[in-house]
Specification:
The structure is a homotetramer of 235-residue chains. With 235 residues, chain A is of the alpha/beta class. The first copy, chain A, contains 8 helices and 8 strands. At the A-B interface, helix 2, helix 3 and helix 5 of A face helix 2, helix 3 and helix 5 of B.
Chain lengths: 235, 235, 235, 235
């Protein structure tokens, strides 16, 4: 959230979610938007997560950048600390960190980047959780996180297509984003009851889910989130 | 400090100073440079100050921007919090905040901007001090700071010319920067012994001084600072 | 146009417009988005205008910045030249320049800024037109433009409320944006038939109109533009 | 040039050089600095080259970014066109393009990036030359450039150490930059008389040289350039 200049959609969505990833100014957002989003989140009892990114405002953080470990550690602490300071000024606390875009993807495919981010969280504040893409090797990640003294949150994307190997279908490919409310709801129900989702090829993919992610730039975001919220409160 | 890509000058200066204003990425600097500067400051027992700016990387923060009070409060907390988080990861603490460039000048000429910055400091952390330009009305500023529950530090510029009214000669004017070591030393001695400095017109200007500022981009910065350091330790 | 990451709305709008103002990377947009917008504009026979801004990507160019005449001249030439070069690589030519946001507003309230922009256009390419807000003193502006050897285009905002003095109701005030298709159509018809529009207070405001502007971030942009296109082709 | 806020060094260097690479705002520089550098270059009869970069103002363009061919083509045309427009406003013309930092390195190691840049130059203006790192395979590059209808300039770095394979010793390694005037002069003489330089291991490396590059951020830049200028005019 806090990615578009017009935050009226964010305000409509807030009552229906539990956790909000806030852009920290490196791929989108700016200090005053972060301040406003925190106010909204607080009013709705929503947990606040930092959404740090490579410094690529122009490319919305979607381009991988060749950063050293030291650069990654520093940019994660910088952005999370900036958001946390704004949280503090509202009397709330940063709850978790979820890297954005290319930084998230790189974290999931390059273990050194995962370690750099885990180190950043650990050095800044061990009470803050790190959110990663739920996959077949969650145990391996949990063991590494343990070494850094931090906890993980596993997320499943409600509105992105998965390959059979558990990775996301890239945005540049057809069908990468599920924009129909029905598809998303079906996936959520399946995950809740059976513990797996369907891949783009129709296979069953078992996934641990601490949280379900819907992208704010999905045209159907509001109605999808309302439907998921209803589903969650019926059960 | 942390304003130039090549931080070797910063490293040379660190042993001779007591306080370092670190650029926070809005007019210069970036997370990894901030991280490196903190490491150097810590190694030399130097107090760390945030040097927040208008968001103007291209113009080095020297252009005034039309920001609302809410924007100023947010951008000061954002930058200071980012630096403080990096400090925290090194086991040190942000000591004070000194606005940079146009934001500093606007703070000294527009009382609403001063209040916005004082509010930012107050909402973020009341133990952090706010550094302002020492002037004839320090009492007035102290009274306002009191209302926000924060403390002020008064600084005198060692290497900038003053007008008779206590304001700085703008950089665009001739003689704005003192680049001779002798001139600066003479000013420091006069201030130490007599409590005043000479304005550009030769008048005596009494000024309270908690700290003496030398600009890192002054070509003579290193030798000026070494001389001031020697002067200070002779007494 | 070229202001949002998702350019699908731009693509839908292109068939219904005659002129497109393209963001040049200083308040929004980036080189590859500009390249794509030019391709779309060319395919639809739409005239291309540069939409240069203060360098404020973070604030969408909506904050006035204290720039010297030399800075304004340079930033207008830089952005217009960058877009024109991309046009050239597609075998088309930049047609006009319309400053964006705060730069546009400052141009209309500070004659020195208008002159700086006129000078920029003149020094770069006298065949490129400068678009300004149509007002009661168009003659005065035309005389000045003449001195710089350039031509003006007068625009009326289809979707922004006007004060009685011909200035725009600021976005921060209620009713600043007309989002109902009917209101906009009524204004367009009135302007076409009678040569005036209604101010926010209901007064008649006569305005010369070379072009009618609808903002791309208006939620009703597409349907408003389709309706205006239909109106225009019925007559 | 045009990379540091203080352009006094640039002004001192201008009389001693034949070609100047001007930063175009993506890794350093801004429109008004470009405008001033052009003025200086023109006054000294110096050829002007564009120095386009990945969009990484924060990292000085030294980090590789994962850009598509379309993105590279667009960002090269954007930056070169912006500079050329400013040149045009001074009645001079852009002479050549030399990519900066990571973009330059990527161009020399990834042939697809070289082609993207050649395509950009070709689509924008075939009279503009492309400057590349002189190496053992200059013929191969010339053949490719031919297909795009453009000409190449081969440059040798006066102040950077070379490996035996003709690539540059990375800045992160010891001895990457030659900062002694004597070493640089010796290299220049050897190249002029014998057509080769010495690698970091002392081997002879034959190199075609249309131009000799000295980095503006080399602490000895001015004295090195003056010595090279003298050497050149003695012969």
């Amino acid at each position: 959230m806090g990615e578009a200049l017009d935050i009226s959609l964010d305000e409509q969505i807030m009552p229906y979610i539990d956790m909000a990833n806030l852009a920290c100014g490196f791929h989108a957002g700016n200090p005053v938007m972060m301040h406003q989003s925190i106010k909204e989140a607080k009013a709705n009892g929503v947990s606040i997560g930092a959404h740090p990114s490579y410094p690529d405002l122009e490319g919305f953080g979607r381009r991988e950048m060749e950063c050293s470990v030291e650069e990654i550690v520093s940019l994660v602490i910088y952005q999370s600390g900036a958001l946390d300071a704004l949280c503090q000024s509202h009397g709330v606390k940063l709850n978790y960190i979820k890297p954005h875009g290319a930084l998230y993807n790189t974290m999931m495919k390059d273990i050194e980047v995962f370690k750099a981010i885990a180190k950043a969280v650990s050095k800044y504040d061990k009470n803050i959780k790190l959110m990663i893409l739920s996959n077949a090797h969650n145990d391996k990640y949990a063991t590494m996180a343990d070494k850094y003294g931090i906890s993980l949150l596993y997320e499943v994307f409600a509105d992105r297509a998965y390959k059979d190997d558990g990775s996301l279908v890239p945005r540049s490919e057809r069908g990468a984003v599920l924009s129909s409310k029905e598809e998303v709801l079906q996936r959520a129900k399946l995950l809740q009851k059976e513990g797996y989702i369907k891949t783009i090829n129709g296979k069953n993919l078992p996934l641990q889910a601490d949280t379900l992610c819907v992208h704010g730039d999905n045209a159907q975001a509001l109605s999808i989130i309302q439907a998921l919220h209803k589903l969650n409160h019926e059960n």
